[in-house]
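Continuing the batch. This is chain 6 of the set; chains 1 through 5 are on the previous pages. Same settings as before, nothing changed between runs. Recording input and output for traceability.
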Amino acid sequence: TAPEPLPFAMLSHTQRVTRLYRHSLRVLLNWTVQRETFNEQALLLRARFDANKSLAGERSISAALREGEEFVLSKMKHPDPYRLPWQEGGCTYQRNTPPVKDILERSQDYKEPYP
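Output for chain 6:
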């Protein structure tokens, strides 16, 4: 299992901005399947981040960051996000899983695979 993500209060500003940018790219990939279109949209997204790079003042910076997080989590969220085939919800998730050993032991033909 993956470790629990740190709450935003414990992250530095740089970590929050980096996570927001990476999450935005992942969400953007859900909406644009074609790589050329994704690259164009990613450039526009990067331009939005670069435009806020020169903000001064702690309040305006935190307000812009909060606004970006809310935008990505609410308005950009895809109803059916892309999942890799082997991840939970993917088309091959848990395909050919090994059978439960208890069930195999009940079978009369069961033999230990390795002595």
